[in-house]
Amino acid sequence: MRGDGNELNERKKLILKAIIEAHVRDGEPVGSKYLTQNKQFSLSSATIRNEMSELEEMGYLEQPHTSAGRVPSEYGYRFYVNSLMQKYRMSQNELARMNALVKSRLAEVDKLLETATQLAAALTNYTSIAIKPGRSATAITKFRLVFITDEVLMLVMLMADGSVRTGQIHADLQLSPGLLERLEMILNTQIAGKRAEEISMPLVMEIERLFGEGDSLVGPVIKYICEVLAENTGGDVKLSGVNHLLEYPEYADAHKFKELLGVLEEKRDLLRLVSETDESDDRPQVIIGSENSVEEMQDSTLVFQKIRSGGKVIGAIGILGPRRMDYSKVISTVEYITDNISELLRASPGLPPGGQDDDEHKT
Amino acid sequence: MRGDGNELNERKKLILKAIIEAHVRDGEPVGSKYLTQNKQFSLSSATIRNEMSELEEMGYLEQPHTSAGRVPSEYGYRFYVNSLMQKYRMSQNELARMNALVKSRLAEVDKLLETATQLAAALTNYTSIAIKPGRSATAITKFRLVFITDEVLMLVMLMADGSVRTGQIHADLQLSPGLLERLEMILNTQIAGKRAEEISMPLVMEIERLFGEGDSLVGPVIKYICEVLAENTGGDVKLSGVNHLLEYPEYADAHKFKELLGVLEEKRDLLRLVSETDESDDRPQVIIGSENSVEEMQDSTLVFQKIRSGGKVIGAIGILGPRRMDYSKVISTVEYITDNISELLRASPGLPPGGQDDDEHKT
DNA sequence: ATTAGCACTTGGATCATACGAGTGCTAAAC
DNA sequence: GTTTAGCACTCGTATGATCCAAGTGCTAAT
Known about the structure:
Two copies of one chain form a homodimer.
Chain A lengths: L9 H17 L5 H7 L6 H13 L3 E2 L8 E2 L1 H11 L7 H13 L4 H16 L2 E6 L7 E8 L4 E8 L4 E7 L6 H14 L10 H11 L3 H16 L5 E5 L1 H4 L8 H13 L1 H9 L8 E4 L11 E10 L2 E11 L4 H21 L16
Antiparallel strand pairs in A: 1-2, 3-7, 3-10, 4-5, 5-6, 8-9, 9-10
Chain A binds a DNA duplex through helix 2 and helix 3.
């Protein structure tokens, strides 16, 4: 019954569009009469009723119960997003607000993502999600040891993917810049480039031998390095504006809302969701209802877009709301914010400058 | 009417305790009859009624309406927490679970706090909050510049409070270790120890003059330093288990819950709340209802405890739930978790080892 | 092909009633 | 003097009946 025959005539499209937009606006089923009175259709309610009846048969609409108006089906929304919707044009006001917010804080990617989420939530009145996928353990290409105090050193690690990690290590013996220089060299020759599995006990002992004094220094350092290598950084998810959801009657059911909240906090599912989608698709992705493999989110829509920097996906920002959501506005917002972030990332320093990747060398 | 005369006799205390515990258990007003049938009181309901009536007059109990049972008043809870409650003894099971979780991930304070929150939420079935107060702008005592690639350097700043901040800076000119060494020295002589206001334009120009080449390097570096100095790090708040709140009918009202969520996300109020309390008190703090200055939280109770490392408050973890909360269990949990974290912080490195503070030198 | 008209369905709001839980008080019992 | 039994009273909620408005589907007329 879906997409049978060949699609909708113009009038049906217009009606469907009007229904969806009306429903999104006030959240109630839309009746035939409503469409005639408020709107530009020069048709009677009866005619519209007939069309609606057909639209229902074709799967674009649904009836909550006999005497209610129609509501867009998931399929209907999907069609709307794919074909009917026109891009939302931000108002002067919104644009100004956005620019101001975007410019305010940049710097580290983390902060950037967080700001972006808050922004998205504030602008759309839906819940917004920042996703930072975990980098799966990469090798370390270079070490630097920095002398901080007599007892503390900082370990700086340049990762193969171009990012940098740092950590402080507390040593039990008296440190000196010279000592660190020696250890740094040893690390760079012996450990750089290796994966966690390759750091065997004999290797560690060899290093301790080379370094000579103070295995109370080598020990903690190696331990820290192993931790970083093994880390498989879990990825991070930040929510903003969860409270907005409660504005929509769709989330009135406390129990279901609780479940949803639980999933959102769990991170895992969200991360999977983002990584499941087409890796190369850099447009906003719209996941409507049951297209979503996470059960608890099947009454919601998730719109998200990946953010790249130097060819690598470094995160994503998304918006979550009821299936009845202002797709046009949400999609534009996500798109706009993502673009801006990419822009900022290109301009500012802060993270991988594209470094040792294959693609970038052709310039 | 509060605390008039001189306090409760034994029987009143017992009855009050029983009422509170029953109410916490099932969330409904407690009637006189209920107390007699289920419980160990060898009294009739009438007697209990009389006692309850007096307890009400004294301000420990309240009646939602004439024909409902009694409910503990805020004052009643406060009394319970202060005098009646006995420490919750964790079950073998809970202890095991906790230990396992605590041991799993430690390392950075951030991670630690996050794990702790999740733990607290899981154990208590309330919402848990990790609070990392912002350090109010401190001076930088020392700089280190680390060569990372031809174009990127890492700026390491030792702060006056003993912590370390790092940031990457992208330079437009070709970097070299020698270059950085020179700049490092200039920074250490010219800027170290200064506050943000003291970094004037003339000073910056002086530095550029001293450094000579490439103000395309000095510019970004100084800018970054100023940002860090001005930063007044906002502090951070992490929530876990928000969904648990929805289990309690107290939070059924979607609108109020939305407001509460909004406040929790805002961070600001929470941070204030924690910093408002007695700085030196390291026991768990219990803020019940209207004792809380945040309006939206006046129907809730917040239990939290500060975490110190080397004398400095580095964060707090707390639990938020309905006023009717299992105080005994919650307080013990918070206490236990906090103690464990302190323990871990003492054992592992990772953060300020107490550094250049006054108190610590006396060892 | 469109429209007017009408019978039918149905969820929600409104109202009245009944019920149950709990109290406060008085008078009797210990 | 304290405790208890008994009873009238209060009040929130659950239940059910009724009504209404909105919307549909269908048929017949335009």
